[in-house]
Design goal:
heterodimer; A: seven-stranded mixed sheet; five-stranded antiparallel sheet; 14 strands; elongated; B: six-stranded mixed barrel
Chain lengths: 411, 437
């Protein structure tokens, strides 16, 4: 295919061609970055929590009277809850579950020396110590949540303490074990937490923090054998997925029947799936908007290409007729317009790739987005080439159907 | 002539109905999305207390030890004051008015038997808050300095809570139990909540929270009432809930300063105070770290607009930009295709200006239609934002100024989109085109 005549024609329509090139360039730059953001968010939204999400429901209860021994009340409540048909098991936690936004975190050091260093610097940074979120809960927590114990054992009954007291043992997540004791087994090691120490007796595969910071420490978590001993408590129920709503309502009725002087907000009784959806609500909205705007941009660009090609075909009907009359085949005409489009999109894509990188740098600066992986750029280019060819196909076919006889007619 | 051009433009647009519709749709979507996000940004950055905000200032002191390393992800402990610092500023009386405050949630025990106890959010404060922020009262008033000094058990309720507890009876003079203490109601405020609730701790939902009760800060401290918000400690003994501690920050402090000279004097006072504390050995850092924020500066410092909202705005503007480029290119091609018609009109005596006006009107028509569509789309967009659970969502609606901005944006967009094609079209020389016909 001879491209010199095409370049000559484009030169004649310089302004229009430049505008279309710019449009392709901006679309390429924006769509590459938007696609990257969509995938980035999608990974964020699908982070595993390590628990059996679709079997769990949560009932937050807030006592309002003065209670001398809240744990005794929670224990009798749990006995009631376990009798509800469909409830496989039930535990009480103070307030923390993965992604429920109620966090309690501690600086934890692997050795006394590291702890002293951290105290001296008043910072955990560079001392070997890590900040970790803590979960508490009544016996049976691991089984109810469906946590996967990869080493060691669950807590023994005599290891539990009531309320926020120092614990002698702890179970930690595998990620936290790797961060604190790289290359070693964490079992039997001591955690130095402020003024007290706890021995690691178990390691669970995955347990996500209640709040995500996005700094690679979201899986640094530990479980302490503390029995909730506050007037406020959350009961976690395990049941078959389809029973969750019914179990929640039954639980509320049973708890209020046992003691009406407490607050059980029915809006805060949730299945775990709702807690998760709520945590990522903004991200899922954002993903929807990003997808919509990427599709919208591609559509508008395709529209621009089709519209412009249509005008050009109309404008050049006579010259197409002449070319056909002097021997050009339909294929020649079709390829002419396809090549023309390919050239414009190529100019646009080259410029667009540069713009995409620039836009990414800007986003990295203002929105803490990571660097755009380079393979997005060729993929974006191919998408735009395909889009361009698709958009130009109809007008180009129309052009190739212009009969040679047009050349002999006056316009 | 104008009517004739409109007629010509409509004919021309009707010749390519699909393309015209799509152009209007593209510009409408661009304008609609941009205006939705600009409106959200506008309501989130509005002045929460027009008329008073210019005189309200927030002192910022630095009592942190030298070797304290702030957590880059955490909240700045200096956003709040410690009890000793707040009391020192309060008792110095260097501002026209000043108040120290903190948020809290308390359990209300209604006397009506048909109501279960429930939790409400409110504020513990020193008495100047009411006059300084201009809180409107419907009955009674705030409490006096003497009440504050005596830690009297008095409370101001907002109208909603007063009505809920006492129906249509007057609440003032009645007794209400909050937590474990009975308080005497001394005033009822109208339902009042600046958007954002600038004086609250950053952890609050600043766009949706409001204070349903106010009670003396001294009562809260004496009785260790529960505090909402960030409590940051940096003492070595690490007793977090000791609220009168010199290394625990949790109090918000605001001052009213009426003139720039007064503000400058107050800024100097803060530096002098820090220097004094340093010489006493309590502060370790340079006294020049002390700052005085104006209300609007403070809101900018707090950066209340979520990054996602800004990103959505740029996305919308980017879409509008691409849609505009698209329309310019299409109109250009469309107008130049009519070079023959243009040159005939030029040859018959139409001036360049006439051609320009004719085509400018055609593109303006697309712009106006797109702008109207955009206005509709932005209303739908704002409606959908109001359905979201974000705390700013309920504010998302257009005020008259944003309506005007929308219309302006539509006009500017269409003029920009039409200018280049119309200008190019009017430069088509008459004779040359006639020859080729």
């Amino acid at each position: 295919m001879e491209i010199r005549p095409i370049l000559a024609t484009l030169h004649k329509h310089k302004l229009t061609a430049i505008l279309l090139t710019l449009q392709v360039a901006f679309t390429c730059a924006i769509v590459c970055n938007v696609a990257f953001m969509i995938i980035h968010r999608e990974q964020h939204v699908s982070l595993p929590t390590g628990i059996d999400e679709n079997t769990l429901s949560v009932v937050p209860v807030r006592g309002i009277g003065k209670d001398e021994n809240p744990w005794a009340r929670h224990e009798s409540d749990l006995a009631l809850l376990r009798q509800i048909p469909g409830v496989e098991s039930a535990v009480a936690v103070s307030y923390s579950l993965p992604l429920d936004q109620s966090i309690s975190s501690y600086g934890v050091c692997p050795t006394q020396a590291a702890l002293d260093r951290a105290m001296e610097r008043m910072s955990l940074k560079g001392t070997g110590c890590e900040q970790a979120s803590m979960f508490d809960g009544s016996p049976g927590l691991l089984r109810t949540l469906g946590l996967d114990l990869v080493a060691g054992r669950d807590f023994r009954r005599d290891e539990y303490v009531q309320g926020q007291k120092d614990v002698a043992v702890a179970i930690i997540s595998q990620a936290f074990a790797h961060h604190l004791y790289p290359g070693e087994s964490a079992l039997g090691k001591t955690l130095h937490i402020g003024h007290h120490v706890a021995r690691v007796v178990g390691v669970v595969r995955t347990l996500l923090s209640p709040v995500l910071m996005g700094k690679g420490t979201d899986y640094d978590t530990m479980i302490w054998p503390q029995l909730p001993n506050d007037s406020g408590v959350e009961y976690v129920l395990r049941s078959a997925p389809q029973d969750r709503r019914r179990v929640l309502d039954a639980a509320r009725a049973a708890l209020l029947k046992a003691d009406p002087s407490r607050i059980i907000d029915s809006n805060r009784m949730q299945t775990y799936s709702q807690i998760r959806a709520h945590y990522f609500q903004r991200d899922t909205t954002m993903i929807g908007l990003l997808v919509a705007s990427a599709l919208g941009l591609l559509f508008v660009t395709a529209l621009g290409i089709t519209g412009l090609a249509n005008f050009w075909v109309g404008q050049r009907t006579r010259s197409i007729g002449i070319r056909r009359a002097i021997g050009a085949t339909r294929g020649d005409i079709l390829r002419y317009f396809q090549t023309e489009n390919f050239l414009i999109v190529t100019f646009g894509v080259v410029l667009g790739v540069l713009l995409a990188v620039a836009l990414n740098l800007l986003l990295m600066k203002h929105y803490e987005l990571p660097r755009l992986p380079l393979w997005y750029l060729p993929v974006g280019a191919v998408v735009l080439w395909l889009l361009g060819q698709l958009a130009v196909l109809a007008p180009a076919l129309r052009a190739s159907n212009v009969p040679p006889v047009v050349a002999t007619r006056s316009m | 002539m104008f009517g004739y051009y409109i007629d010509l433009a409509l004919r021309s647009l009707k010749r390519t109905p699909v393309l015209t519709t799509l152009m209007v749709l593209a510009i409408g979507l661009g304008i609609g999305a941009s205006m939705t996000m600009l409106t959200v940004l506008h309501v989130m950055t509005e002045d929460p207390l027009p008329g008073r905000s210019a005189h309200l200032y927030k002192p910022y002191l630095d009592p942190l030890p030298l070797k304290y390393t702030p957590d880059p992800l955490g909240n700045d402990p200096l956003n709040n004051l410690t009890w000793p610092d707040a009391m020192a500023l309060l008792h110095a009386h260097r501002a026209t008015r000043q108040a120290a405050m903190a948020g809290g949630s308390l359990l209300v025990w209604p006397q009506r038997t048909d109501l279960q106890p429930f939790y409400v959010d409110g504020r513990y404060t020193t008495p100047d808050l009411f006059a300084m922020f201009g809180v409107p009262f419907v009955a009674g008033a705030g409490w006096s300095e003497e009440d504050a000094k005596a830690s009297a058990h008095v409370v101001v309720l907002d109208e909603t809570l007063a009505r809920k507890l006492f129906g249509n009876d007057t609440a003032v003079g009645k007794s209400v139990r909050l937590g474990d203490i009975n308080y005497r109601v001394v005033g009822v405020t109208a339902d009042w909540a600046p958007k954002p609730l600038f004086y609250a701790d950053a952890s609050a939902s600043l766009f949706s929270d409001s204070d349903q009760f106010f009670l003396p800060l001294s009562v809260a401290v004496d009785n260790k009432l529960q505090i909402n918000g960030n409590v940051s400690g940096w003492g070595s003994d690490g007793v977090p809930n000791n609220w009168t501690d010199a290394s625990t920050s949790w109090i918000q402090f605001w001052a009213q300063l009426d003139t720039p000279a007064q503000a400058a004097a107050y800024r100097q006072f803060l530096v002098d105070y820090s220097a004094e504390q340093k010489s006493l050995g309590r502060y370790q850092r340079p006294p020049a770290n002390a700052k005085l924020y104006t209300l609007m500066d403070w809101l900018r410092h707090e950066n209340l607009v979520p990054a996602d909202v800004k990103l959505q705005m740029w996305l919308a503007l980017g879409f509008l930009g691409v849609a505009m480029l698209n329309i310019v290119a299409l109109l250009l091609a469309k107008f130049l295709r009519r070079s023959g018609e243009i040159s005939v009109r030029r040859a018959m005596g139409a001036r360049k200006r006439d051609i320009f006006v004719q085509f400018a009107i055609e593109s303006a028509l697309i712009g106006v239609a797109g702008g109207l569509l955009g206005l509709g789309i932005s209303q739908i967009g704002l409606w959908s934002i109001r359905q979201r659970p974000d705390d700013y969502a309920h504010l998302a609606s257009m005020d008259p100024s944003m309506l005007i901005v929308t219309v302006m944006l539509a006009i500017i967009a269409s003029v920009l989109a039409g200018f280049l094609p119309a200008w190019r079209a009017c430069r088509v020389p008459p004779a040359l085109q006639l020859k080729t016909l």
